[in-house]
Amino acid sequence: MAALTLALSKGRILEESLPLLARIGLDPAGDIDRLLRVPSRNRDVSLLIVRPADVPTYVEYGAADLGIVGKDVLMEHGGAALYEPLDLGIARCRLSVAAKKDGPRPDGVRRLRVATKYPEITRRHFAQKGEQVELIKLYGSMELAPLVGLADLIVDLVATGGTLKANGLVEIETICQVTSRLVVNKAAMKTKHAAIQTLLAQFAGAVRA
Ligand code: PRT
Ligand code: MG
Fold first, then answer.
1. Where in the numbering of this chain does the ATP phosphoribosyltransferase catalytic domain appear (predicted)?
2. Claim to verify: residue 167 and residue 196 sit in the same structural domain
C-alpha cells in the first residue's frame, strides 16, 4: 500500500493541480475521469479524487494524509483541524459580495437577503460589519438569485468578472482572495513526518518553478 494518500479536488482545481503534480512525479497513473482512487507515478503516493467540499473531511479524519483544496472551502469548513502549510497559488479568484447594477434597496424594514454557497463565511462577514442579514443557502448558480428576486445580494467566487457582468450584476465588496492550499492531517504530520516534509518541499519547489 502507498505510504501517503493525497485527496484532490475534482473539477477546475484538479485541472490546475495536474501541472504541479507532473513536476514532482505525482501524475495520476489511471483514468481520473472514472476512478475515485488512482495510483500516482510515485508508488509511495496514491490519489483520491473527491468533491472539493469533501476534501477537508477526508483529511481531517485521516482518510487522506494530505489534500488540495480551495481557501474558500477551507474557510467555510473551518480549518482548525488541519494544517495548511502551503499556498499553491492555483485556481485563483476572490470571494465577493455582488448585487444587481441598480443595487439592493434597503427599505429599513426588511433585512437584506443574501444567497450563497458559503453561509458560514457570509454570516461572519456581515456580523463583523454589524449587519443583520438573512442567509439563503444555494448549491450553485448564485448569480440567478438577484435576477429573480430570491435575494438582494450574493456572496460568490469571482475570477474574470465575466459571469457577474453577463448577468447584470456588479461586485460591491471583496471578502477575501482565494487560491488552493495544500492541507495536512495533524496526526499524519507527526507519524509520517519525514515523508510529508519531503512532499511539502517538492510541492514548494514546484510552486516556485
Ligand atoms: O461540483 P461540485 O459542486 O462538487 O464542486 P464545485 O462546483 O465547487 O467545483 P469547481 O470545479 O467549480 O471548483 C470550485 C473551486 O475552484 C472553488 O472552491 C475555488 O476554490 C476554485 N475556483 C477558482 C472557482 C473559480 N475560480 C470560479 N471562477 N470556483 C468557481 N468559479 C465560478 C464562480 O462560482 C462563478 O460562477 O466561476 C464563475 C465566475 O467566474 P468569472 O471568471 O466569470 O468571474
Ligand atoms: Mg460544480
1. 51-203
2. no
Write b or e for each residue in 11-44: b if 16 or more Cβ atoms lie within 10 A of its Cβ, otherwise e: eebbebbbebbeebebbbeeebeeeeebebebee
The number of beta carbons lying within 10 Å of the beta carbon of residue 80 is 7
Question: Could you give the 3-state DSSP secondary structure of residue 94?
Answer: strand
Residues 56 and 122 both lie in one domain: no
Is 138 found in the same domain as 105? yes
Atom of ligand 1 nearest to the CA of 163: 43
User: Does any ligand 1 atom lie closer than 6 A to the CB of residue 67?
Assistant: no
Task: Confirm whether pTM is higher than 0.90.
Answer: yes
Confidence of residue 139 (pLDDT cuts 50, 70, 90): very high
* Banded pLDDT at 102 (limits 50, 70, 90): confident
pLDDT, one tens digit per residue, over 179-191 is: 999 999 999 999 9
Q: Which CATH number do you get for residue 57?
A: 3.40.190.10
178 lines ligand 1 (CB under 6 A): yes
35 alpha carbon to ligand 1 midpoint, in Å? 22
Q: Which domain does 142 fall in, by range?
A: 93-178
Instruction: Say if ligand 1 is within 6 A of residue 156 CB.
Output: yes
**Is residue 102 located within the same domain as residue 160?**
yes
As a whole number of angstroms, the distance between CA 117 and CA 139 comes to: 5
- Give the ligand at the shortest distance from the Cα of 157: 1
